Amino acid sequence: MRVLIIGAGILGASAAYHLARKGVDVEIVDEEHQGKATLAGAGIVSPWATAVEQPDWYGLYATGARYYAELISGLTALGETNVGYGKVGALVVAEEKGTLDEAEARIHRRIKNAPEAGDVRRISPAEARELFPPLREGMEAVYIPGGARVDARLLSAAMVRAAVAMGAKARNDHVTLQLDDGRAVCIDSNGARIEADEIIVTAGAWAAQILNPLGLSHPVAPQKGQIVHLRLPGVATGKWPCLLPMSSHYMLAFDDSRVVIGATRENGAGFDYRVTAAGEHEVLSAGLALAPGLASATHIETRIGFRPASRDIKPILGRVPGIAGLTVGNGLGAAGLTIGPFAGKCLAELVADGAAPVALDAFAPEGRA
């Protein structure tokens, strides 16, 4: 079997890695779009506090977090150690005590089936600031030791390298799809057909453009995110936990004295690559209100990413009805860096073995209109 993967973000890279592990002949074609969600995103792997209760979606979200231990172990065994992953813990905070109480109850209910979350406990404002020094005084927190952060650029690159080391091919190109007697076929930028028995489209916010020539109205649009990167010169930030306020913003730190504050969620902005005054103000205001100790930090950059957002919160994963040889993985949205690696494994097993490790019926893509 020969499988072509279009798009090498977190999802496509994972699918390639897992197919290569099975000995499948894999080719990865990726176009280096600016604004890829994977390249811009700084991920927090800590699903247990989310207020979203949709059972299918939350089940995939929680399984994605659990799968990271196996993923990192497998990559390490292949010599991939620069994967950008660290289990540093997570602090859940809230402006209102009642909101934090609700979050704590929700977390404890969920971790009964999630030992990987660790010994979750309520901690005092002083303990919270000891773990995350810039935090505003007087904020209690729920501490989740099993929370982790991931640099998606590093992790995706590591999975692609591992796949290539196991025999996969990878190249950068602009490709198009067309139908040939009811089957999806791929044409490269020189007009040549790329031979494949199966095609997996994991092209993120650009997938609709690729799938449209097949008569598919793909229900995913770019959701723009502006993400601010700061540096605290000389400060050892590498062990700081992720910060999860009960809002759409978040904070995490990396080893190079870097602190990341994210992010806007801009629907309807299209592929607008600009850092805007309003976006910068929103993110910095939210970040400094929560962690005023970052006021003297150096602004390094603001990254722009386009999350592939579906019409509802659910991902789109599975074979496309009515088109032979075509599988789609998309719509992971803001949960992409938690769900992506496991979802890639699901797609790999679906294509190679005929069945995913979990049921994907709830995430099935639509067929042709």
From TrEMBL:
GO terms for cellular component: cytoplasm. Transmembrane segments: none annotated. It comes from the Bacteria. Its cofactor is FAD. Residues 2-350 form the FAD dependent oxidoreductase domain. GO terms for molecular function: oxidoreductase activity. The keyword Transferase does not apply. Keywords: Flavoprotein, Oxidoreductase. The keyword Cell division does not apply. Belongs to the DadA oxidoreductase family. This is FAD-dependent oxidoreductase. It comes from Pseudaminobacter soli.
